């Protein structure tokens, strides 16, 4: 199954995140708005009830129906402790007490408290004899009134204009009101409870309006987010597409000299382009190096093979003219060159040296002891007091042999070798008293198939692989091989390898 593009996934992801954030924010806004409006309605109902209770303090119970707060359109009632409705606003006039609240004991002396209880019981019996209250005015079971339950939400029947009505022909629905109950006394000391309601219609309408606005604006906002994300991602990925096209063209043409375009910005895409170009440059260098290696190897192999073939053809025609020593020498040269090429191929393939411990001073003495037939004597001038390195004894022997062979070719009278400790390293120095290496060529001599003396014969100078092999092996063992300037004269090669226990 084909996966969606990065641009599409980014747009969908951003849209989903924004949608979730907006939905969560919407719920929070609606809840906050609903709570704030409910608190406002509750406060309005309580203030209205307290205002009406304050008016009653200057009126007798028979004149309680004339209090200023009872001319409002909201449901308001003044109820005595015995259940009598002393006054009510127009919506509740002629109806029993607002249900949903208990008729609480008014504050006063114990005797008054007991009297009010008996009066309340009697009035309750009278109310039951008089018949049930209207369904719209009836609430749940009576509860004790305390500081935490002086306000509750009740439903009242309303008409088309949203005004409270008990006329069966005018009722079109119900409306919730926040009703607050406040205890007080009339001017003649009659304890009363004032019930005042504040409509929650404005709250519900505001919440509905905000909800509709958010629901209608949410799709538009999500479309804008998706479009902007798509465009921004497209613009951000445009350099990546240019890099991809150029890499595809390079692959098709095999022209490693080409480079991908690098954006001017200093962002991740620009760093990707620079890294890609660095990789292409390294690949081009590697391919060019391999091409030169193949060409040089072919050239080096051609000479001993051609010489050997000539000698064999002459021997076939004139056996008495066969130079057997020369044929053997060419065969040895060919064998040595093939072994060098094979070792370089293994090193280029990343072959790691064997994990062993090698006593370097013993290895040096062994190599020197095997060179009794050399043109110039090899003298060991210093050896370390023990110390081992990790690696392959065979490959390290090859390094020492190549260094000693190189010194033999250039020495005037002798070759000197030393082994010493230097901190956490073992250092091997090979010195000769020859002309030395020019400063400009002290790195070049480690390149493959490089011979500084172009006029020197191949028999004397070799194929130019010895020092290249020696440096590659040294680096594979975590060390270095350099040709620094000698303190006196001649040539100087320094091999540095880390101690095994360092």
Structural description of this entry:
The protein has 3 domains: 58-199, no CATH class; 268-348, Signal transduction histidine kinase, dimerisation/phosphotransfer (DHp) domain (Helix Hairpins), CATH 1.10.287.130; 357-498, Heat Shock Protein 90 (2-Layer Sandwich). The protein has 502 residues and is an alpha+beta fold. It is built from 9 helices and 12 strands. The strands form 3 sheets. It has a 5-stranded antiparallel sheet. Helices cover 48% and strands 15% of the residues. The radius of gyration is 53 Å and the shape is rod-shaped. The longest helix is centred in the middle third of the chain and has 53 residues, at 201-253. The chain has helices at residues 6-56, 110-130, 201-253, 268-317, 324-348, 360-369, 393-410, 458-461, 466-476; strands at residues 76-80, 85-88, 151-158, 173-185, 191-199, 357-359, 378-382, 388-390, 415-422, 425-432, 480-482, 491-498.
Global mean pLDDT = 78
Query: Main sheet, how many strands, which sense, barrel?
Result: 5 strands, antiparallel
Strand fraction: 15-25%
Total number of helical segments?
9
**Uncertain stretches:** 106-149, 454-459
Helix content: 40-55%
């Amino acid at each position: 199954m084909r996966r969606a593009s990065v641009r599409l996934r980014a747009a969908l992801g951003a849209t989903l995140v924004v949608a979730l954030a907006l939905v969560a924010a919407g719920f929070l806004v609606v809840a906050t708005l609903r709570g704030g409006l409910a608190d406002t309605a509750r406060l309005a109902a309580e203030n209205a009830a307290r205002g009406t209770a304050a008016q009653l303090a200057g009126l007798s119970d028979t004149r309680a129906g004339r209090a200023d707060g009872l001319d409002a359109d909201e449901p308001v009632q003044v109820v005595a402790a015995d259940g009598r409705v002393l006054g009510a606003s127009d919506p509740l006039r002629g109806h029993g007490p607002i249900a949903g609240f208990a008729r609480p004991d008014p504050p006063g002396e114990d005797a008054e408290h007991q009297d009010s209880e008996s009066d309340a019981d009697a009035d309750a019996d009278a109310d039951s004899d008089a018949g049930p209250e209207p369904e719209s005015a009836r609430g749940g079971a009576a509860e004790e009134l305390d500081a935490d339950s002086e306000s509750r939400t009740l439903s009242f029947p309303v008409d088309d204009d949203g005004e409270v009505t008990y006329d069966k022909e005018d009722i079109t629905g119900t409306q919730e009101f926040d009703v607050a109950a406040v205890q007080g006394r009339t001017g003649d000391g009659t304890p009363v409870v004032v019930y005042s309601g504040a409509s929650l219609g404005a709250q519900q309408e505001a919440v509905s309006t905000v909800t509709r606005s958010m629901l209608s604006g949410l799709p538009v906002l999500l479309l804008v987010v998706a479009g902007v994300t798509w465009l921004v991602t497209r613009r951000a990925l445009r350099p990546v597409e240019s890099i991809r096209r150029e890499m595809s063209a390079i692959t098709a043409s095999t022209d490693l000299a080409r480079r991908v375009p690098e954006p001017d910005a200093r962002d991740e895409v620009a760093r990707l382009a620079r890294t890609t170009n660095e990789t292409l440059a390294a690949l081009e260098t590697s391919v060019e190096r391999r091409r030169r290696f193949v060409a040089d190897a072919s050239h080096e192999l051609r000479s001993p093979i051609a010489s050997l073939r000539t000698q064999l053809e002459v021997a076939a025609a004139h056996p008495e003219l066969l130079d057997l020593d020369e044929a053997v020498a060419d065969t040895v040269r060919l064998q040595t060159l093939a072994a060098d090429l094979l070792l370089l191929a293994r090193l280029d393939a990343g072959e790691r040296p064997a994990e062993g411990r090698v006593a370097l001073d013993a290895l040096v003495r062994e190599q020197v002891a095997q060179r009794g037939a050399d043109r110039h004597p090899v003298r060991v001038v210093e050896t370390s007091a023990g110390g081992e390195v990790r690696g392959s004894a065979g490959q390290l022997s090859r390094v020492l042999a190549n260094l000693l062979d190189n010194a033999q070719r250039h020495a005037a009278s002798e070759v000197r070798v030393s082994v010493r400790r230097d901190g956490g390293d073992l250092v091997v120095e090979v010195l000769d008293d020859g002309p030395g290496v020019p400063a400009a060529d002290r790195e070049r001599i480690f390149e493959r198939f490089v011979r500084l003396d172009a006029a020197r014969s191949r028999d004397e100078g070799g194929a130019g692989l010895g020092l290249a092999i020696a440096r590659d092996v040294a680096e594979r063992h975590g060390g270095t091989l350099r040709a620094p300037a000698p303190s006196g004269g001649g040539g100087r090669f320094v091999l540095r390898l880390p101690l095994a226990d360092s």
